[in-house]
Design a protein that fits this description.
This protein has 291 residues and is an alpha/beta fold. 40% of the residues lie in helices and 15% in strands. An 8-stranded parallel beta barrel has the order 1-2-3-4-5-6-7-10, surrounded by 4 helices. A two-stranded antiparallel ribbon has the order 8-9. Strand 5 (159-163), helix 9 (177-184) and strand 6 (191-195) form a beta-alpha-beta unit.
Length: 291
Amino acid sequence: MTNRRNFLLGAAAASVGASSSWPAFAQRTVPLGLQLYTVRADLAKDYEGTMKKLKDIGIRHVQANLTMAGKTSADQRKLYDSMGFVWESIHAGGDGLRGSLQATIDEAKKVGIKNITCSFPLYPVDRAAIMAGPAIDDWKRNADAFNKCGAACKAAGLSFAYHNHNLEFRKIGDVLPYDLLLQETDPSLVQMEMDIGWVVAGGADPVAYLTKYPDRYHSLHIKDLKNVGIPNNNMKMTSAIIGKGIIDWSKVLPAVKKSAVQSAYLELEEPYDPSPIGMVQASAAYLKGKL
């Protein structure tokens, strides 16, 4: 199974106490977009044709990498603008944030990007070591790196966020790495992009986090999953069409709308059933009017 992090590198419930009160965020509509990773194979075959299909489905907001299926950031900007898509957020990681942060920021700004989101832990550098389980000091190093990335982005007029998987919910003694990241990153510099599916896959409760930390979440990845091998902390899940999996959206979506979330991107993982476009279409239909 193709793993999203391979592409991007170039609950026993988590103990989260829910707050008894919500902040005064206005009830509002959150635009539904798509993380283009979902349709990467289709883009590689017919980029413009795939984007037209997405537009026909009703997708208007997209999140992508600076380079996507052979298209440069400038190519993407020209295409998306010509077709009426909004592209304000990118995923980045690895050396693009560890060693070439300023170059990544400069390129993002040049094509009108407003947010850079780190898609995977930056440390340890070796992916196998990350999959084996970063130590507490590694997670602290990540938090420090995210603060530095956030400061650099803020100085350039951009926002910075971190996107979770289920690795962050693998306890180390009494420490839950995801909680450590929330505690050791500066809220004024580092937003959190909650991947709802990966939170659930890790055995945690997205509603509890949205309730306790409503102002930390400015964007979401929306995915559903089947009850296969769940929970785990090893980057495994079987994706489902939104509304056809195990997530109770009648509880999650109201919590989303009472948080600071401004953007929500569908992101579906392999295996695709019936197809990436088919899953996007059915998922968007389910979510219509609910966000």
